Amino acid sequence: MSKIRFFEQVNRNFDDAAAYTKHPTGLLEQIKICNSVYHITFPLKRDDGTIQTVEAWRAEHSHHKLPVKGGIRYAASVNEDEVMALAALMTYKCAIVDVPFGGAKGGIKIAKWQYSDSELERLTRRYAFELVRKNFIGPGIDVPAPDYGTGAREMSWIADTYNAMTDHSLEAFACVTGKPVSQGGVRGRTEATGQGVFFGIREACENALDMKTLGMGVGIAGKRFVIQGLGNVGYYAAKFIQEGGGILVALAEYEGAIYNPKGLDLDKVVAHRKERESILNYPGATNIENSAEALELDCDILVPAALENQITKENAPRIKARMIAEAANGPVTADAAKMLLDAGKMIIPDMYLNAGGVTVSYFEWLKNLSHVRFGRMNKRFEENSQQRLITAVEQMTGKSLPADIMKKVVTGADELDLVNSGLEETMCEAYQNIREIRARHNNEISLRTAAFIDAINKVAVTYMELGIFP
Ligand code: NAD
């Protein structure tokens, strides 16, 4: 199989959508190109005393809005083409969910499991040091976040390094998002991407016309789904879809997949994997040794939540799911997408579906700049107002509300409530927006093309209002 260039895939999708817009060619070219790429190599002293050279990148795709924003990935497969593609997707993603950032992405080319915690800390801090030195990080410049292979711990190291190297400004902790709550993180960020994936799928399943076209009933309840990748995004997507009534029939990890048409209990599978270091041999489930075959199982919704280029023109004809929900970035190649759409399937595109992470990162960034926890100022006020209203009704009617009901009714929103509410609103509104664009084109374009049209138009307006393209 010839090597699939990820950035080229993203740009093919861009070009398909650009054809439906009327923007000047030069402006479209400016939106599409990657503005700057910083390629670094630095030495890492391993625990055994040997020195290893490590390769890393940070790509800033579009500066039409600042800061630029995007995750940092640790994987052996990281390369320049990949970070540029992922940075571009970030630009479009932020535009789709109206988060006021440009797009960026970073990556370190390492097989993470081969490194000790102290080696990972040294290389993360060194990477952050290099970004500071070249002005590729800062609350108003470029704000990284977690991605494949990284999490709150790495973000905390980056924030600390940035803080130590700069002038201890009040905004320093807004230089990175996805931090632990104790380090300025926001509640709900860890699960945000998976939760957003759930909101997006739920919204799609509520559209009666689309469900009829796919030959499925309305609503997420009862739908059989398969998840590829049991990491941050895959785990939380599976958790929320299961809580919403979906039936998890298969799970695929790199060591293999397990299948049970009656359903798998997610948390029991996670406990089993922790104990046995493999999801295989889970009681009651069938083992699938070749993990990729799980993508081809009979189900309603397939959720690839691992890496890009998982569904190609080679396996696309064997995909049975009627809805493919791109929780990962770029899991379906452009050729494969065309084949799936021609076969009457629906693809919920990555740049919309996994935007929950950047949405809640935006909330975290706002929290860091304002230095106050969401809900702190108004929670008690809301509760008191509700209490006063109920007391007035009780006095007028002469009836009083039972204490247990009163407790449920009188509740002010805390940080997690507000973050989840903001996330749900963002994901639902953005879906309806994309769906409407598709409807305006007589439903003849894909949701991806509709999402790209939306993103291109929004970025184009910013450039025009900046006066660069009058
Ligand atoms: P993660 O490192 O937490 O988890 C990824 C999981 O996928 C790992 O458990 C890994 O073992 C598994 N995996 C890798 N290759 C596989 C394969 N071929 N088959 C089955 N399983 C495989 O990463 P993540 O943060 O969950 O990211 C997953 C995807 O979601 C990536 O494409 C990432 O860019 C995207 N994404 C992540 C976020 C976020 O907030 N973390 C936000 C938006 C998009």
Layout of secondary structure:
Elements: H1 6-18, H2 25-32, E1 36-45, E2 51-60, E3 68-75, H3 80-96, E4 102-109, H4 117-133, E5 142-146, H5 152-165, H6 189-205, H7 208-214, E6 224-228, H8 232-243, E7 247-253, E8 256-259, H9 266-276, E9 286-288, E10 301-304, E11 323-325, H10 334-342, E12 346-348, H11 350-353, H12 356-370, H13 379-397, H14 403-409, H15 415-440, H16 447-466
Parallel strand pairs: 3-4, 3-5, 6-7, 6-10, 10-11, 11-12
Antiparallel strand pairs: 1-2, 2-4, 7-8, 8-9
Bound molecules: nicotinamide-adenine-dinucleotide.
Strands of the biggest beta sheet: in what spatial order?
Answer: 9-8-7-6-10-11-12
Q: Which stretches are poorly predicted, pLDDT < 50 over at least 5 residues?
A: none
- CA-CA gap between termini: 45 Å
CATH H-level homologous superfamily name of the domain at 192-353: NAD(P)-binding Rossmann-like Domain
Structure commentary:
The chain is of the alpha/beta class and 470 residues long. Among the domains are: 36-183, Rossmann fold, CATH 3.40.50; 192-353, 3-Layer(aba) Sandwich (Rossmann fold). Helix content is 46%, strand content 15%. It contains 16 helices and twelve strands. It has helices at 6-18, 25-32, 80-96, 117-133, 152-165, 189-205, 208-214, 232-243, 266-276, 334-342, 350-353, 356-370, 379-397, 403-409, 415-440, 447-466, and strands at residues 36-45, 51-60, 68-75, 102-109, 142-146, 224-228, 247-253, 256-259, 286-288, 301-304, 323-325, 346-348. The protein has a seven-stranded mixed beta sheet, with helices on both faces. Helix 3 (80-96) links the parallel strand 3 and strand 4. The longest helix has 26 residues, at 415-440. The radius of gyration is 23 Å and the shape is globular. The two termini are 45 Å apart. Bound molecules: nicotinamide-adenine-dinucleotide. Nicotinamide-adenine-dinucleotide binds at residues 71, 146-149, 193, 228-234, 252-254, 291, 305-307, 327-329, 354, 357.
